[in-house]
């Protein structure tokens, strides 16, 4: 499983913490991080299966790419795209993120 965590540099603490937690809880996963300015390049280079991002999906991926759009504002729901279907979740926890990642496998 390849997971890319991408947040703007203002929120690099969130980016690095989320990535580290996923790596600890899912040691077999390959986890990388990127700033939003290098997101497109990193998508091509790393070819992730899951993207956890603070931005709306700016590309048109195939149905195999899962996209989890996390808001840095607690009152905004996360938007989640898995197997081509969108859903929302309010303030997801690490366990929710891990369950979503596991759903892809």
Write the layout of secondary structure elements.
Layout (H helix, E strand, L loop, with lengths): L1 E5 L5 H14 L4 E5 L4 H8 L3 E4 L12 E4 L8 E5 L2 E5 L4 H11 L1
Parallel strand pairs: 1-2, 1-3, 3-4
Antiparallel strand pairs: 4-5, 5-6
Characterization of this structure:
The chain is built from three helices and six strands; from the N terminus they run βαβαββββα. The chain is globular. The protein starts with a strand and ends with a helix. It is 31% helix and 27% strand. The chain has helices at 12-25, 39-46, 94-104, and strands spanning 2-6, 30-34, 50-53, 66-69, 78-82, 85-89. Strand 5 (78-82) and strand 6 form a beta hairpin. It has 105 residues and is of the alpha/beta class. The chain has a single domain, classed as Anticodon-binding domain (Rossmann fold), CATH 3.40.50. It has a six-stranded mixed β-sheet, sandwiched between helices.
């Amino acid at each position: 499983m390849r997971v890319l965590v991408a947040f703007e540099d203002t929120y690099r603490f969130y980016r690095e913490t989320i990535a580290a937690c996923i790596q600890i809880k899912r040691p077999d996963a390959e986890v990388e991080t990127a700033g939003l300015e290098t997101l497109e390049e990193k998508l091509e280079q790393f070819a992730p299966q899951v993207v956890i991002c603070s931005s709306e999906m700016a590309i048109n991926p195939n149905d195999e790419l899962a996209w989890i759009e996390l808001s840095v504002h607690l009152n905004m729901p996360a938007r989640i795209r898995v197997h081509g279907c969108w859903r929302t979740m309010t303030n997801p926890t690490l366990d929710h993120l891990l369950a979503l990642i596991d759903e892809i496998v």
